[in-house]
């Protein structure tokens, strides 16, 4: 395969990079001294055009290919995920159209786009080195984006926490991946899996037992890699940065962390686990525990669901509440991975995509309220149902979808994910204990989502509160997001059928 | 045609949200018209479906990848409950004619709830059923939290969480059953035919049954019911007691018992005389009957009396279900209908006719008002309703409870006798409430124009003296609260509608039994009668 093919595979990423450079250049050269609103508008336009160009290219010229043993992979599944990522980024960009937290507009959009490029590369590779590099590209952009509100102490604090934890997690990931390289003498996930399987058969032949005995180095590699990814996905016990980052970061940055980066992170975690650690799964079926990466993820999932949901119960800040709910949702999503089958991508992707839409919308509403009331406390939402009915209705849909109330996307996501975890071939209800915990915990979650809705609809308006009109662009994006959550919940086939047909190929 | 009961309700809710907020009259009219159309559709659908048994209304592929269908169908039991819902919906709207705070939102949520309830009763795909079942939770929460009274936010949250915990239990059971049957279909009939292993049914049955029974007010999971009912605005408590509790009982019958009939078989060992889940649940039902009645007997708040009476009456439904014979089961369905009508009426009297006028529900305060003179229509309505509730022949409650007790006599005689005690206590609390709220002679209150009686009643001497002195003047004129507004026309229509429905069923129960009994012979109920003698 020649480098020309490589370039062809990487065209969507290239388009976005070009857009990032363009937005920087235009802002630097043309727009100095122009008023902020116009700069924001033009910056958003260029960025959106770049992302739309990427989407259009992916739709118009579907590529399939594998460059240099998985260095860059394009197939229908990665295409779907890339389109979803780009769409989420567009929504994020549109939500930042009305922000005034920074004068550095060109840099802001460039960083958003670069972060997106990192995610795009992350989903289209099967090579651990490439995974690490794209992970870092994404993370570094997000660290800076978190710190972007220079006037806010919280933003700096959040960024510092995010960066320190993130740097440590990156070190863990790199260490884990280097151990994998030591085991397999290859950076390709498929070859790593082969090497692991060979070792396992040698070991089990020696032991004579049917169950898998794991190499200590492999165990270390698994734990370190999972720790690194666990940090990206804000799962317990690697979640400590999340509440602060979600609360302190500027709204668009927080939205990107919560939606796009999560989608990319889960997709690559699933890929690494399914492809790279095939043969070292173990199991968590009731009374049949076997060591491997599945039990590790199961423990993390259970801890995330419990801690996320219980901690969210007592939050006074809506952004922290969304952060803890994100931790809980990460826990639910991890359940999809436990069946260690490629088909699990379907429920996982449906869940993460719709979750991304929902949480993006929720952040959008919080942004408007914060502008209006000056804070994101629960009390700041009081009476919103009267003063901004449409905005409140959008929030109603987002919160209920997060809680898993039908007919919204969140409900079908949960149903599909849980029923898949139970019905995966050979599982025989083995995961029932975890699924029961998840369903029970989602019953707990209704309480705190209703706390938000209670403020909006039940509690009368606080006397003060200058009425800020919801910007038209924000309102449009939010309505579209709410509509998407509703429609995808009623007609899940819209997303499901492409994913399933991509999986069958 | 029946499917349009769901669609018109949602459509009505949508139209309401588009109306201008100021136009209260239009909001009321839209709601009432929607409910009337619902009744017309329900009744004509029932007449058209006269050939009993299960018949499909709509069946479309919904999510083919998961084998989920949009499958609406009805058998006699669904039809009975659909008709009940349509009647309760109209009555609720008539009794909330005076809602003037955020009227259009009130009726929009109300119709949303009604539509979801119709949906549950008509769904024969379990996924769809669950969707409608959960959809009903959110309107309930807002109806209570916004328009309610006493401790409304607490009551609303308690109700929402109890419902959601119950549906979480149901969801666990459903997802497990779906997965075990190969994740190919959620169709009720198909899953009911699937031979789930006995060991699975043994835990799935109680899980799903209790999950639904929480909403049906099964003791000891009933505690949401009294607080929720009391906190709710009149129309919402009418719906809560009238149809929402029926959702729970319907789910027990339609899902838990139909999917996992072997879960009701004996465990094979005895603990304290209990040999199966059936024994456990029928005991809980009987405890509910007696306990609810006993607690209703000592309540100080008028609405709590009715709230606990609902727990007691719903106990009969659950007991009837657990008899596993045709008599008991048809009695249970009749009781669902009957309680839906009568409880609606009782809550209407307490919430709308009395509380909205007197602004108190304390029986001790009401005792001072001699409401039978101030509000004679309310007094008569409540008399009729409580007579119907205590099981007077001629009203629906009598035929229903008689059938349940007769069915229970075959299955477990001891419980049948105990539930008879419940009926007796029921007479006592109904009479007590009736006497205290309406027919008590005001003790020395008629002095002057409603001055506090406290100084006079401290000594018996002055107490009797006052009474003697004022009695001749007091006859026929309500002194204490002269400004009670008269009972309005919508209230009268609503009361007559509900009393009429109860009377028709009481005098001619075959109207409903002809629907219920043939559907008990369909393959869905193949397990029926197995446990009758055991």
Walk me through what this model shows:
The complex is a heterodimer of chains A (505) and B (534). Chain A is mostly helical. Chain A has a domain at 281-505. Helices cover 73% and strands 1% of the residues of chain A. A two-stranded antiparallel sheet of chain A has the order 1-2. In chain A, a hairpin with a 4-residue loop joins β1 and β2 (72-74). The longest helix of chain A has 32 residues, at 153-184. Chain B is mainly α. Chain B folds into two domains: 3-442 and 480-525, no CATH class; 443-479, no CATH class. Chain B is built from 23 helices and two strands. Chain B has a two-stranded antiparallel sheet. In chain B, α1 packs antiparallel against α2 and α3 runs antiparallel to α22. The radius of gyration of chain B is 23 Å and the shape is globular. The relative contact order of chain B is 0.10. Residues 445-479 of chain B have low confidence and may be disordered. Chain A binds chain B through residues 346, 400, 405-407, 411-412, 415-416, 418-420, 422-423, 429, 432, 435-436, 439-440, 442-443, 446-447, 450, 454, 457-458, 492-493, 496-497, 500, and chain B through 63-66, 127, 130-132, 134-135, 137-138, 141-142, 145-146, 153, 157, 160-161, 164-165, 167-168, 171-172, 175-176, 178-180, 182-183, 200.
List keywords for this structure.
heterodimer; A: 505 residues; mainly alpha; two-stranded antiparallel ribbon; 73% helix; 1% strand; globular; B: 534 residues; 2 domains; 23 helices; 2 strands; 70% helix; 3% strand
- Report the average pLDDT across residues of chain A: 88
**Largest pleated sheet of chain B:** 2 strands, antiparallel
Multimeric state = heterodimer
Low-confidence stretches of chain A: none
User: Topology as H/E string of chain B?
Assistant: HHEEHHHHHHHHHHHHHHHHHHHHH
Strand content of chain B: under 5%
Give the number of domains of chain B: 2
Taken from the alpha-carbon principal axes, the silhouette of chain B is: globular
The total strand number of chain B stands at 2
Structural class of chain B: mainly alpha
Mean pLDDT of chain B: 84
SS field, number of helical segments of chain B: 23
Q: Report how far the terminal alpha carbons of chain A are from each other.
A: 22 Å
Across the major sheet of chain B, the strand order is 1-2
Distance between the termini of chain B: 42 Å
Number of strands of chain A: 2
Biggest interface, chains and residues, is: A-B, 33 and 34 residues
Helical fraction of chain A = over 70%
Uncertain segments of chain B are 445-479
Radius of gyration of chain B: 23 Å
